[in-house]
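CATEGORY: protein folding

GOAL: derive structure tokens
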Amino acid sequence: PQYLFSLGTMLDNLGDVIGAESAYNKALKISPNYFDVLFNLGVLYFNRGVELQNSANQVNDDIDREKKLMEANAEFFKAKVQLEKALKQEPDDPNVLSSLKTIYSISGDDEALKRTEAKLKTLGY
């Protein structure tokens, strides 16, 4: 799994998001609780969601905009799933908590947002 994690990271840095996603998912098949892979995969999905959301804001057609926003929300959901798994491995990781805070804010999950903000505050963030 370490090799696949490294491969995924390298591919992600080179802009090959599909290749990175594939490598990360293969690593998770071997080691489902691999924190670094869970975090990186969550960030990958989050970044795709942001890109889709930004492109939706540039679209004038309401139907096309809604389609892109739905795609963005699907990516944010996939990010949330991976980041919540990562949080189970490292419950005090500020990077995971900050990412989840943003996702909870975007998705309107006020209860999870408050919980996450409180956790970050107790950690000094």
About this structure: The two ends are 32 Å apart (CA to CA). The mean pLDDT is 97. The chain is about 80% helix and 0% strand.
